[in-house]
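Example 3.2
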Amino acid sequence: MTTKPVLVIGGTGKTGRRVVRLLRERGVPARPASRSGEVRFDWLDESTWGPALDGASGVYIVQNDGDPRTRALVRTAVASGVQRLALLSARGVDTPGYYGEDPATSEAFLEGEAAVRESGVDWTVLRPGWFAQNFDEGFFNEGVLAGELRLPAGDGAASWIDVEDIAAVAVAALTEDGHAGRTYELSGPAPLPLAEVLSVIEAAAGRKVRYTPLTTEEFIAELGAQGIPAEEAGLWAAALYPVERGFESKVSDGVRQALGRAPRTFAEYAEAAVAEGAWRD
């Protein structure tokens, strides 16, 4: 158990703030870092890196998707004395065509993975599938509240992973022995198509939502009409491609490998989200 602080990059995000909470529950000093967090960290301003890393024993790394600088950050971290790194990557990045024809998403994550593997210190890579929390904290929430989710996902299913489980694996990697050099693929316990997902949400929240499948072109056009740049819309479409193709239905055992227990079900996630105030008008 470390008594030195753990730097949590993206400490206000979906995974990061949960990593911070779980570290503190264990009595480990957590240093939440972001452009607006307790500790200032800006991927595009390297002058913020050193102060954020000073005295840290480990780092939880959430990459900057638009301009990945993970290798430079890792060099700075190791030079500052960091001994453990846990990187949030993504499932399927080592499978050609997993995110469609554009390899940019996979290449960025693979470069980050290579950086931590070549760091010379203990490292762990987390490769989660689609987050369950996207339905109440992220991209899907607006559609759920509107009563219709319109996505280019066809009839595909995903084994939605509860972000609480991702955070728990990250904290184990940063505070316990036995996780160094491991790559954990993380998923929920069973695949669920979007129509079934929305039925689970209805049962938990009493909110009826229908799913309408779109083509990729329709999806990008609709986001464009909402003012979302075409590049960003294209990234969301690429992220949904493995759902539409059925790739995300795979169940992985990384949670059990890392924590010795089964991952939380989507129903458990939905019930907890409702208890915390999700999906209220």
